[in-house]
Amino acid sequence: MDSIENTNPQRSGIKPPNRYLGAAIAATGLHEISDSQTNSRAQNPTMLPLPPQGVKRALPNGNPAQLPDPKRKTLVERAGEPLNNNPAVSAASTISRVGVPKAVSITTLSNIKPPNINGITRNGSVTSTIPRNGSTHSFSQSVGPGSRPPVTRAPSSMGFNKSTRKTVSRTGTSRPATAMGDREGTGAQTQQQQQNAWDVDERLHELDSQFKQMKEVMNVSLTDRKALEDAVDLAKTRVVDLERERQQLYEKNEQLQTEIDDVRRQFQALTLSHEAQQRNHKYELEDKSREHRHELEEIRREFKDETDRLQRTHREELEALERHWRAELEDERTQKAREIQELRLRLGTEQQDLNNTLLSKEREVQNMRSQVEALQGDLDREQTIKGTLQQQIVEMSATNMTLDGRNRALQAQIDFLESDSQQQSTSFAQMEARLQDALRAAEEARQKLIKEETERRVLFNKYQELKGNIRVMCRVRPVLDATEGNEAQILFPDLKTSTQIDVTGPEERSSLGTISRRVVPFEFDRVFSPNVHNEEVFGEISQLVQSALDGFNVCIFCYGQTGSGKTYTMSSTDGMIPRATHMIYDTITKLKEKSWTYTMEGSFVEVYNEDLNDLLTPAGEGKKKLEIRHDDAKKQTTVLNCKTVALDSADKVEMMLKQAQNNRSVAATKANERSSRSHSVFILKLVGENSATQERCEGTLNLVDLAGSERLKHSQAEGGRMKETQNINKSLACLGDVIEALGRGSAHIPYRNSKLTHLLQYSLGGNSKTLMFVMVSPLEAHLKETLTSLRFATKVHNTHIGTAKSTKKLKERVSDA
Ligand SMILES: Nc1ncnc2c1ncn2[C@@H]1O[C@H](COP(=O)(O)OP(=O)(O)OP(=O)(O)O)[C@@H](O)[C@H]1O
């Protein structure tokens, strides 16, 4: 045990045994193992070398040999226990102190349990490997192979016996110190010992058997020792393996450390080379920068020289040019001054001429005005006469009736008188004379009435002509509901005469960025605000219907964009067409009294895509192509193959309107779902004959509902719709051209440029009367179309056919947006 501690005290970590532990180990024979270990280490120095420095560092507490095995600790702890508590050690101690054991002592020893001897396992820990074999084994373990051989003990025993005997003989009371003796120590014991002392043979025999037992124990102990040695060898092998592994790990660690050092060295080398490269680059860059600076300086110098040179050249050129242009400018100024002088002179002369013309025109206007006033006076007079005559007619009619009554009475009297006397014959003759007078007076009155009617017609026509043969009226429809959109700003400033309309145009941005809206004023023969009903509108056109009855050709148009109210004005149940026919029926009935009988025929045609369609012939009835025929002598137009309906009752007109409405081409566009894409013309022919005067008159009333006048771009029409729109726009433009040509008094009127104007040839211009309704939508969204329509209507309004008409120039105002 000492040898283990001396060889490697650090590795064992076991405290040095006290003297009791040394004795105990000696008793168990472990010292021999220690010796053998020492020897084998001496023979094999690699067996348990001191750990290398690296490994030492890696292990806990810096002691690589420290074994944390709990069993090893147990051994150490047990080894450190005071031997007084350990029966085996105590026994061994007793033996070593006493020397030769006495028989009693051996017996006692055999009863003592051996200490728990631990072996060393493969992993280096110490474990108990010794099998126990009852108390005998305990004894052998306690004694161990290191104790003196039993052979030598026999004589000792014998000697002991002898000495015992001697002691007994000397003291008589003394005896060997045994446990049993210690326990009993009584007089009976002493007596028994004295008896045994005399029985030597038995005693010897007993000792012999004890010796044999001890020998057996020794043998068993030797076997155990062998097993222990094997275990130790195994442990040693394991330790060697472990040591080798540790060595390998250590070497690997060393190798890794070397590699790390190599990598570190390489890294340092790389860093150094990189720094060197950086330094080189820096120097190179500095060199290049210097070079560039030099080059830049040179270029700058060159550029400055070149700029100075160019500037000098340019300055010289500029001065030369300036001199040249100054000279030219001077020449031109002189020339222009001369021209201005000449122009001023010419302007003065022209102004003089114009002033003269203006004066003559003013004189003409003055004359015209006085003519108009004279005519107005005539008309007033005639109207008074007409009133008087009408009064007279009424009176005459009453007289007539009275005369009729009287006549009947006289006839009765005649009958009476004929049957009676001479007196009766006389009174009959008187009455006859009076009757003749009355009849003569009645005839005179009738003749006067007819004459008056003829005069009225002439005066009425004159009156119509004074109003103008082309009249333009404007009608603004109301907003139908809130969903239609914002209402435009439309004002009716002239409430007295209702002839003006002011439309606030869309927002306009000036070049300075200010936004403003222009108020555009228009003036027409009559302006109808949204709250005016069809009845009032008809009141204005009824005179034209009368003209048609009087034998004139009359044309009433409705012009305007889709949805502005054309159809509503013209063909709705209380529109112009039904009202006109009703008025005609009423008038015809009245005129019968004046010997006038009338026939009335109606037809309804449509101009669609420059084709003429009969609206009174249903689609399935094989329509024939319509042809326009003009009678230049009568100034009448006939449409061949067109159905004509004799209008002898008011119901027929309504039926006709319905039929025409169904046959009319109506298609949808994005501007209005129910948009009329064609012009419809209601033609009413009126032929009157006076049986009294044998007069005959033939007039035509054309009521035209034009197609929507909206621009092509706005209506967003496509394909077929686009063609329709183009044709509509073309025919409306032709209508404008015809009216303009009539206004100019042009020799050629382009009636034939469109189907519509061709059809209405005798109702436009000449002796005919034209009324155009320009229909206006009240919506802000339709403002542009509204302005376009009103401008077109203004052009028509400024056209004078037949009679002179004063025109006013209206000024536009600007209002803030
Ligand atoms: N003065 C009015 N009072 C009340 N409603 C009106 C008036 N004018 C037009 N309307 C209504 O406005 C709508 C459009 O009118 P209308 O169909 O007559 O327009 P339009 O110009 O003839 O259109 P299009 O010719 O394209 O068919 C209709 O519903 C009509 O009843």
From TrEMBL:
What superkingdom heads the lineage? Answer: Eukaryota
Q: What residue stretch is flagged as signal peptide?
A: none
Q: What is the phylogenetic placement of the source species in the record?
A: Eukaryota, Fungi, Dikarya, Ascomycota, Pezizomycotina
Q: What organism, scientifically named, is this protein from?
A: Rhypophila decipiens
Listed Polar residues bias regions: 35-46, 120-144
- Residue stretches making up the Kinesin motor domain: 469-799
Q: Is Nucleotidyltransferase among this UniProt entry's keywords?
A: no
Region annotation (Disordered) ranges? 31-70, 120-197
Q: Which stretches are annotated as coiled coil?
A: 225-385, 428-462
UniProt xrefs under CDD domains: KISc_C_terminal (cd01366)
Keywords per UniProt: ATP-binding, Coiled coil, Cytoplasm, Cytoskeleton, Hydrolase, Microtubule, Motor protein, Nucleotide-binding
GO cellular component terms, semicolon-separated = microtubule
Name one process (GO BP) from the record. microtubule-based movement
Which segments cross the bilayer? none
Q: Which Pfam families match?
A: Kinesin
Q: What is stated as this protein's family in its record?
A: Belongs to the TRAFAC class myosin-kinesin ATPase superfamily. Kinesin family. KIN-14 subfamily.
What GO MF terms are annotated?
A: ATP binding; hydrolase activity; microtubule binding; minus-end-directed microtubule motor activity
Query: Where in the cell is the protein located?
Result: Cytoplasm, Cytoskeleton
Cited InterPro entries: Kinesin-like_fam (IPR027640), Kinesin_motor_CS (IPR019821), Kinesin_motor_dom (IPR001752), Kinesin_motor_dom_sf (IPR036961), P-loop_NTPase (IPR027417)
Q: Which residues bind ATP?
A: G560, Q561, T562, G563, S564, G565, K566, T567
Under which name does UniProt file this protein? Kinesin-like protein
